[in-house]
Amino acid sequence: MGDIQEKFSKKFSGYPKVYRSPARINIIGEHVDYLGGLVLPAAIQFSTDLAMLPNSSNRYRIYSVHYDSLVEVETLSKQSDQKWANYILGVIDELKKEGYIFGGFDLVVDGNIPQGSGLSSSASLEVGVCFAISDCFKLGIPREKIAVIGQRAENNFVGTKCGIMDQFIISVGKQDMCILLDTETLSYSYTQLDMEGYEFYLVNSHVKHSLETSAYNQRRAECESAFRKLQTHFKNAKNLYSINQNEINFLDFQFTAEEHKRLKHVFGEKDRTREIIKAFSEKRMVDAAGILSRTHDSLSQLFEVSCEEIDFLQSTLLSLGVLGARMIGGGFGGCILVLDSINNRNSIEENVKKKYYEKYKIETEFYSFTISDGVNSVNKI
Ligand code: GLA
Predict the structure, then answer these.
(1) N or C: which end of the chain has fewer CB within 10 A?
(2) 362 close to 309: Cβ distance less than 8 angstroms
(3) Quick one: CATH architecture of 2-193?
(4) What is the rounded distance in angstroms from the CA atom of residue 63 to the CA atom of residue 119?
(5) What lines the ligand 1 site, CB under 6 Å?
(6) CB contact at 8 A, 188 and 172
(7) pTM surpassing 0.70?
(8) Domain ranges in the chain?
């Protein structure tokens, strides 16, 4: 952490407070967190590091180490042409809209979350900034509210109509724990998986296709239009996820082909979530891993948010004997989450890298991770 303070003093003066905001994985419940679904995410140790100090002015001076770029803003009338800065300006904007009063600050942002990897570097930044402002200006914002402010920043200022999952787990995460979050009510519980003999790890495809935001918003819009059609019959349904698919006669609703596929993913994911929770509780890890692979197939074929490289990597992993693997996050590239017996990885890693490189001329990376706490202050000056 000394490191980020040094970086701060190269740009600004004074002694900042330092914060660390994690990345996240999600075990199951993909593309259901904007439909009132259940998700099972955990915070992991990759992080955004932030150093912040109020500057007794109305100016926000923010510096990104990664982009080596300084942005200075006084009024938040429009988006910055520095895309990274909009995640921060969006948080300031949402806090002001909520009536919070705070002055200008100097901020340095650094970190080691691989960008575009599906590990949610953007939510990590939003939550980190919101937590830092709340702490530096003694606003006392509860963690659950910090998550909502972060999501709104991304929805309204950045323009991605993301759900609440990423910001929520990054705000409330606890070491060694996943949360089971109901994204309709935002009620959640902590749960620890017994991983004895098994492990999760990540494989980064190092591809990120640029249609990410537009396609994400489009998928959400398709689900919402399908829900509007269903509401003509299920008048009291509070969200799409709550509808019982066995009560739907699909022919009655004139769904488009896309809507039909999206619905099949959402209802399938609901069943898989129930199944995997049971499998984990009964320590049937092989079954749990198989469910992850089924989620991958559904995301690829029905929700259509995977891509060629990710599908190749996932099927290569399975063909080499891993128990289960799936893409995670919004899609169109990023990381694959693997669940396998421990000690298997060494024997396949080189082979996967070789096959992927031969086909796409792109290097993959394998990451171990630990489940970490949510956003926190870390400095003791
Ligand atoms: C992204 C979004 C989340 C969620 C996932 C897919 O990570 O930020 O809200 O929708 O995609 O599950």
Answers:
(1) C
(2) yes
(3) 2-Layer Sandwich (3.30)
(4) 22
(5) 30-31, 33-34, 120, 162-163, 165-166, 329-330
(6) yes
(7) yes
(8) 2-193, 198-367
